[in-house]
Amino acid sequence: MDVIGQGVRAEVQAGVCGLVTVIEASSSDGMHVTLRVESNCPRVAQAFSVPRNGANEASAAVVAERATGRSGITLDAFQEVLRNPLAETTPARLAAAHGLHSACLVPIAVLRAAEAAANLALPCDCHIKLIRLDDLGEPQAE
Questions:
Q1: Cβ density class 116-138: b for 16+ within 10 Å, e for less
Q2: Of 67, 26, 61, which is closest to residue 45 (Cα–Cα)?
Q3: Angle 54-60-61 (CA atoms, 0-180°, nearest 5)?
Q4: Alpha-carbon distances, residue 66 vs 8, 134, 138 (angstroms)
Q5: CA distance linking residue 12 with residue 74, whole number of Å
Q6: Strand locations in the chain, DSSP E?
Q7: How far is it, in rounded angstroms, from Cα 99 to Cα 79?
Q8: For residue 12, which of 1, 28, 24, 3 has the smallest C-alpha distance?
Q9: Which of 1, 59, 95, 99 has CA atoms 20 to 30 A from the CA of 17?
Q10: Residue 27 above 60 pLDDT?
Q11: 142 CB contacts (<8 Å, ≥6 apart)?
């Protein structure tokens, strides 16, 4: 039997804010990816988590659950990762709507997790390492 989709977990340590987000993405058909997002960042949690009592009825999780019957946010991975420009993806729109920092890594991590869960890419760690340079353009000692 061929593996159509799989589950992946992404752990995002966003930077100096110290806030951590965990994204679990799974796909049974290699196209639709269900996401569960937990974060100690209140804005990320509001944007991407399944709403609780009295939560925003317009959130992507509510819309997806009503449309698919699945709990969590459901994305069409092919559309989100391969067809939409970055600014038009659901994670980017949610980030903008909920006031996430412009350089927040979470929306990209959501897309990467969806991509890997749908087997559109291999799961692989991604890194950003920022190093201050001195006046001569050389890395400063830590």
A1: bbbbbeebeeeeeeeeeeeeeee
A2: 61
A3: 60
A4: 24, 54, 54
A5: 20
A6: 7-13, 20-26, 32-39, 73-76
A7: 24
A8: 24
A9: 59
A10: yes
A11: none
pLDDT of residue 140: 81
Cβ(58)–Cβ(93) below 8 Å: no
Distance CA 65, CA 92 (A): 20
53 has pLDDT over 60: no
What are the residue boundaries of the structural domains of the chain, listed by start?
Answer: 7-117
Query: How many CB atoms are closer than 10 A to CB 75?
Result: 28
pLDDT band at 63; cut points 50, 70, 90: very low
pLDDT of residue 58: 46
Q: Are 103 and 110 in contact (CB under 8 A)?
A: no
Contact 26, 6 (CB under 8 A): yes
Which of these, 96, 99, 102, lies nearest to 42 by C-alpha position?
99
Q: Are 75 and 41 in contact (CB under 8 A)?
A: no
